[in-house]
Amino acid sequence: MDEIRIKKAARGDKSYISKTLIYFLLAVWATVVLFPFYWMVLSSFKSYGEYASEWVPKFYAASPTFENYGTAFSAVPLGGYFANTLIFTLATTAIMLVVTILAAFAFARLEFKGKNLVFTVFLALMMIPSELVVITNFVTVTDMDLRNTFMGLILPSVTSVFYIYLLKENFAQIPDELYYAAKADGTGDFKYLCKVMIPICKPTIVTVTILKVIECWNSFVWPRLVTDDRAYYLVSNGIQEIRENGFGRENIPAMMAAICVISLPLIVLFLVFRNKIMAGVSRGGLKG
Amino acid sequence: MKNNLKGWLYLLPSIAFLGVFLVYPLVDVFVYSFEEGFNFASQTYFGVGGYNYEYVLRDPYFLQALKNTFILVFITVPLSTALALLISVGLTSIKKLRNLFQTVYFLPYVTNTLAVGIVFMILFKQTSYSDGLINNVLGWFGVAPIDFVNGPYWAKMTMLSVYTVWIVLPFKILIFTSALASVNENYYNAAKVDGASSIKRFFKITLPMISPTTFYLIITGFIGAFKAYSDAVALFGTDLNANGMNTIVGYIYDMLYGDSGGYPSFASAAAVILFFIVLTITCINLLVSKKRVHY
Predict the structure, then answer these.
(1) Which of A113, B97, B150, B247 lies at a C-alpha separation of 20 to 30 Å from B183?
(2) Each residue's pLDDT tens digit, A202-241
(3) Using a CB-CB distance cutoff of 8 angstroms, which residues of chain A are in contact with residue B41?
(4) Cα(A216)–Cα(A210) distance, rounded to whole angstroms?
(5) Using CB atoms, which residue from B17, B119, B130 is nearest to A159?
């Protein structure tokens, strides 16, 4: 009897130790993830003089100041970059939604010749790496005189085959009976799409919208190619510009303040919609 | 007939967008890559052949980019996959605080690669007024300060690898945790009854059960890492050739645009080469997986 009890107690100890170890290691990784964010916020509150005088950087700001945030908006056109990104993100996402919903509806609900063939072609297009097509798109946009315009930024960024696929799957789950009942009542296809399908599939549409917003907000390569006029820079290009020319390269606190301002909207969006975002990403996965 | 037309009408916007910005460019990039001496201003060329490929494959900048990309891929893909698996197994084994940890771990996915990259650069960077935090920490272990941003090649590669792993982990952890959650409890219980140790259970049950996921992550990891670019820009700036840290994708963009740009034919040839490298690696992975993956 005693032996069993001792064994049990020993096992309890062992699992307690291993649990503690697991929590410790998970906490270590959480620190690694959060530390750069902490450093970014911390440095943004240090004055330039304070920052530059610390041979060994301190983990706190001795006299926190907001002046860097003022510098971030006055020394570089950060507000302009912000507005550009907002316009770009909203317009791209809106057009994407219209195009995607129409296509998903056609694939899920309508019957027409060649539908399956077109759908297969669409799926195949998902495999094409953007690096292959960006060269011609750059030439196309240059030829159309759309460099340094919102049109040039937005149009090539609209299409996302993956979202069409995601929404089509969701649309297809709506029972056929609803459609036939609506037809019998004389409801047209377009009205049925707007009044029935979109409301039912709202959760998926919201997920797609958020994922696209994140993608737009962080896009860097295409905007860098088609804009060289600061008036049309998005935040990513703005950061790069700030890094290479703005503030004087050494004013890191001001740079950190700018980065904080730029990162904040997405972090808030993520905290509000984290379950939706994580579920959406695990279903498709945008980044490799 | 009326219905046929309607279906195509609904598809028209997406077909137009995909046609102009995806299908046409896809064909065109191959055409460009064979047009010799293409002049961007006059849109003319004087021959058709493999010269662009020859040029790119001899260009020392391209070879440097090729080398950098391969080293980066073969360091970060195994490292990040293993680390993500380890973290996910730990995450699945706890109940308290699990949601909190999961949320924290996913945070880098939604942040701007360039923004956080600059923070990393500052943590690693040696300046005239500070060695930087990472060097301070290394100093505790008696390591002499290292210039990670402009210093020796291996130091720069270390920083780039650390940042790449940090950036790609959220996605991998997310996918691994959902795969681990779907492994049937009964297998574990049966194994426990048989007295299998937890390490044995991991290698005999968990690993085979999630092998399709692991395989998926390795393939997407390879594809993603071969396209590395913005992470390098965030750490080393846009002039990657000068820093010796360019990647294949970086080389393509530099050929297309910027101070060294204006050569869409060379850019196209490099893009096609990248495409075939990725294709080859994916095919090799598929062949290996046929033997190793349990579906």
Answers:
(1) B97
(2) 999 998 999 899 999 989 989 988 998 889 999 988 888 8
(3) none
(4) 10
(5) B17
C-beta of residue B285 within 8 angstroms of C-beta of residue B217: no
What distance lies between CA B252 and its chain's CA centroid? 16
Task: Pick the residue from chain A with its C-alpha nearest to B113.
Answer: A218
Any residues with CB less than 8 A from the CB of B9 and at least 6 apart, and which? none
The CATH superfamily label for domain B28-292 reads MetI-like (1.10.3720.10)
* Yes or no, beta carbons of A112 and B278 under 8 Å apart: no
Instruction: Please tell me the predicted confidence (pLDDT) of residue B40.
Output: 66
pTM: 0.89
Buried b (16+ CB within 10 A) or exposed e, A132-147: bbbbbbbbbbbeeebb
Tokens for A163? 């979202």
CA dihedral B183, B186, B191, B197 (to 10 degrees): 50
Inter-chain contacts counted by CB atoms under 8 A, chains A and B: 254
Quote the CA–CA distance of A168 and A200 in Å, as a whole number: 13
> Residue B112: enclosing H or E segment and its boundaries?
none
Q: Which residues of A21-60 are buried (b: 16+ CB within 10 A; e: fewer)?
A: eebeebeebbeebeebbebbbbbbbbbbebbbeeeebeee
Dist CA A133 CA A126 (whole Å): 13
Which has the minimum average pLDDT: A36-50, B182-196, B214-228? Answer: B182-196
* Longest Cα–Cα distance in chain B: 79
Q: Which residue of A has its CA nearest to B222?
A: A288
Interface test with A, best of B10, B217, B223 (most A CBs within 10 A): B10
**Residue that is written with structure tokens 């340094």 in the block:** A148
Contact A78, A238 (CB under 8 A): yes
Q: Do A22 and B129 touch (CB under 8 A)?
A: no
